[in-house]
Input
Amino acid sequence: MTVSGYTIGLIGFSGRELGMLEVFFDSSNNPGLKIGSPERSAALLVNLETETDLKQFLQWYASRPDCPVIGVVSELSVPRGVLELKRPLEVTGLKLTLTRVLDELHKKAARSPLAGAQGAGQQKTALKMDPADLKALIAEAGVSAPKPAPKPQQLNTVRDASKSRLIMRWSEAERDMLMRRACGSLPDLDPELPGWSKRILFSLEGRFIDQVNKMVRLAQEQQAPMQVTGIPGSFIYFPDRELFSYDLDPDLLVQMASSRFGFGELDCHPVELKSPVDPVAKRDQLLWMLGLLTSAGRLPDHLDPAESYRLADASDLQRFLLPPQAETIAKAWSVEYRSALEIVKLLKLPQRYVFSFMAAADAAGLFERR
Output
């Protein structure tokens, strides 16, 4: 990540989504913008879920210097001059949009070298609302014109600390969302076609689960609690209890599981704690979940979809976060040694369901190999 000196203000985000954004802006995927105060930042990323959100933002925005704005929307249309970023928030789309904003800020600074990184917001640019358009939008939205030089209204930019951090507890709606993300959208592909394995297999290097596995091995070797460092929260493994202790927002974990970290961004160190003080999860449960969330319907490259495996323990699957058809897959895989491709053919299921299950079960240590 290259730090540019430019900051971006986050408006209207809270809880899990805010946590995901904080991880993104602190990761190697960030093209160079740092999170800053919305009142002073060179650009803005705004949650525009409803017409009310838009009205509140327009009223606030009219009282501060003009700057590039990215509107995150589901169904709402953004005003002219605002960059649109559709949900669900994905790293690729977010990164491309931020790169466009950053390029515009660099060009603007080059045209006005004395303006500086934060003060170059006065020149006209295609990534800003024209003042006339803004005035018309405010009138159309029924928002009162701002008084001269008002103090900027404080918007909700702080994470709601009252939200649960129990990452093993999900509502039905959250589970549905997670399964769509965990199983991905890859179509079934013919294993005989050239390049098939490149689309199906991926490396765990740089993934959060890779660092967690390293931490677990080190904790077992030293018989001492170990903590992952480089993340906004605690994530500790206690080898004597085979438990993880954590203080993470659920969506933060989802974002970390699907991200790739740069060299040295994550590490692990011993901690002095003798017993957990935060919410806990059993080792196999949490590793299963990380394996599932990292998979996105594919397989880690240390697994061979054509090699035969057997599920060592198919009992009590309900303790895990299960992908579609998990019980059926587990039953077929516990009877005898079979490959993932054989399971797909036998059960006539989408490859991504079987591959996601396999990645999760392997992460939890439930497979036996011949």
Summary: The radius of gyration is 24 Å. The chain has a mean pLDDT of 81. The longest strand covers residues 7-11.
